[in-house]
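Long-time lurker, finally posting.

We've been working with tRNA wybutosine-synthesizing protein 2 (Sporothrix stenoceras) and I want a structural starting point before designing mutants. I don't trust myself to interpret raw outputs, so I'm hoping someone here can both generate the structure tokens and explain anything notable. Sequence follows.
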Amino acid sequence: MEVDMDATPTQENLTTTRQHNGRAHAKDGRPKKPKSESKLAAVVRCWLTSVLPTLPGLPLSAGSSLLEWSIETLVSQAPKRWVIYEPMVLLPTGSFSFSAGLPASTPPVASLTSPAPPLWQNVLSAVSHEQQDQLWRDILLALSPSARGSGKGDIHNAQLTHLAVNEGIPLHQEGKEDAENILRSPTGLRPLYGDFGPATTESGGAPTTVDFQRAFWVSTKQNGLYQTWAPRWSMFSRGNIKEKARLLDWKHGDANDRWAVDLYAGIGYFVFSYAQRGLRVIGWELNPWSAEALRRGAARNGWSVRVVRRATDLARPTSDAVFSNTRVDDDTDEAGDTEDTDNDGVDDDNESPEIVIFVEDNQHAARRLAELRAAAAESSSSPPSQKLGEVVHVNCGLLPTSRDTWRTAFDVVVGGPSTSGSSNSTERTGWLHLHENVGVEELTSRQEEIQAMMTTWAGEMPGTCKAIVEHIEQVKTFAPGVWHCVFDVRITLLSES
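Top reply, 14 upvotes:
Generated this for you. Predicted structure of tRNA wybutosine-synthesizing protein 2:
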């Protein structure tokens, strides 16, 4: 379950002008109904009322106007939004005056004897750990949903157990300003309450099965599909829900023996949309934590999935890694075991997994897909389930740009098999979904630039190849005046059979 709440704003201080006996009035003169206080604000108010008068050095005696003023000010500064990813509550950046790199024990920035109301960091540094934990526990208890079911044994957790403050994804690796954070690791996450698992892997390197087992995992449901991830190790973007829904609504026609390729699979943002529409999916993901999250999420949604991450398995012929029915399920501690998961725990003798993810750089994608094409040509008698069929979607979902993979994506579509038929010519269509951050004023020029690139590439192909940028989807704002955009490129090939 995903819940995004807006709390009701409170008054900034007790000196706010109150008209008509303390109640605001509508234009017609009737008093407005006072807005109810959010659950979180109510908890914060109760905690402050109990704690503030006990703090040494603060002239906040019970019943004093300064105490009331301080409480109202601090409540107004408390978080007004939160998101629930069961069993965790995630607060927005800056909640309770926390900021990246500022520990809770930071000394107060103002004197506790000042007549001004104390700031949140002043208060949190003055109270005991037990008092802090009581606030966090009270918040979790107040925001915990009642146990309820949605049928088929789907019961939401009635008690939320973990609380954290979100932070932006850093551009560089922690402690390495010259090393880009290419794994998009959320190292700025600030746990407030609950065990989030170890902050480092057991070996200090690639995660093992034991590391996955020790980690804290959360989940949410969007568009009817579960997604799972470890918040200490991989990110989650709620804003992609619109793009996921768009792909779910895409008209694929007959999905039989059709494939989608995701060059930035992540935790399964778009992989799951394709799988839900009946496409088989092959993808690449560099972050082993995200790949493990995808594996868990796919299994929860009922799809068979294979994650190829062990060095020996990555070295196997690509067709074996994708189509082999040999199940690797030894639960060893070696980093990066290949794992299969399907509905009944046993691989079907005639079926390979619906989703296959390679934990490696997607620069290997072109080679691997070419190998699959060659293997299919050599084994024309093999059943369709054992061959890479027509690729109808290629997703390039990296921001700020996925440009480095656009040629690979183009070649994946145009290099596929022709659709069989009785006529003298065959036509097939595939789509590229190219993600990029673009300024609002640059949308038209960027579309023209991409169109020129696609036209050049299409002209290099034998037969008739057309590549048209048919649509720009503005997914969400990335920064003021900048949109996360997806350029949909329709590729149509007409070849003589």
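Before you design anything, note these points.
The radius of gyration is 27 Å.
Residues 133 and 465 are 63 Å apart (CA to CA).
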